[in-house]
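Open question from group meeting: does this chain pack into something compact, or does most of it stay loose? Before anyone orders reagents, we agreed to write out a predicted structure and look at it together. Recording both the input and the output here so the notebook holds the full record.
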Amino acid sequence: MDADGRQGVLAGRHVLLGVSGGIAAYKAAALARALVRAGATVQPVLTAGAAEFVGPATFEGLTGRPAYTGVFTDAHRILHVRLAREADVAVFAPATANLLAKFSLGLADDLVSSVFACLTCPVVVAPAMHTEMWLHPATQANAEVLRVRGARLVGPAEGELAGGDSGPGRLADVDDILAAVVAALRPPAGPLSGRGVLVTAGGTREPLDPVRFIGNRSSGKMGYRLAEEAARRGAVVDLVAGPTALADPPGVTVHHVETAEEMREAVLRLVDKADVVLKAAAVADFRPVTRAAEKVKKESERLLTVRLERTPDILAELGREGSGKVLVGFAAETALAEEHGREKLHRKGLDLIVVNRVDASDAGFDVDTNRALLLSADGERTEVPLTTKAQLAALICDRVQALLAGRSD
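Structure tokens returned:
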């Protein structure tokens, strides 16, 4: 049972667990187990000192993932950067006086401190050391620096220490650390606090054989910017993403899919908890009727004529249900953009449609800028000149907020 009394409160979350070389390192094993039981994917990272107290094999057995100890492991993949980008939240327990000093000063001379220097996600720090070290002015100053920079410090508690000593410096209870991790992942206060937002992004791939596929062009950038903006405003965001080269946005639960059917299944599974659906994905309109189990040789004529069938229209399916959710669609057009956008708006039962021309070099696919026309079901029309996709995401979220407010009046 997790700290909130519910199993799976961290389901789908990626937690980086940093362990440093204090005697309390053995309690980090219990924390790893608690995080896994709460549903998290736990990535352990150990200092050399931590590995002297508790071997990496212990953490690997508890988490099912490799326990990294050296910055030069998988050096070609730049391990410390990759681990930092994967994390939804990072917790360092125990954090010794030495580790607090490194974090405060920005030193990065081992894997744990190098990962910390790359983090952009919420951070939880659980100090543990002898009383004299904790109360030293330098340690207190380092802890305060971390608090000011946004880290959540848990403890230390007062109690029995190593060597028979007693006083402040004991590692906080596992339940308290776990509760801090859960709290760090709660969305910040904002205009969309308490709202569930479901975003789709990227294109889908419909396989012809294990090598080839039919799909739509999409970098996923617009959908990812929407997810980031909604999360920044306090929403609980689920992002269903087709194949992209983008890193998962911090503070967002990402569900990776490949085909239109996989995207439909994910959306229908998640939509009940959403107040808003932002359907920015470029779902392939057609898929092959049959898929070859093995690669079709190019000398074969099997691929010269491919029978296609329509993929499911996910947004239209949601619109027909009349669920009361705010539904926002996107229309990528190359001609008669407004006419086609209005037709799609009404046919799919949307509240808002974002029409963008994708035949310009500075807007649409693979770039960070866009031009758009926002059309709403109540007849409002807004032209958005060339702007960044991040700024367009903010404008769309403004409209979503207005639609939500109108329904609560």
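Observations to bring back to the group:
The radius of gyration is 25 Å.
The mean pLDDT is 84.
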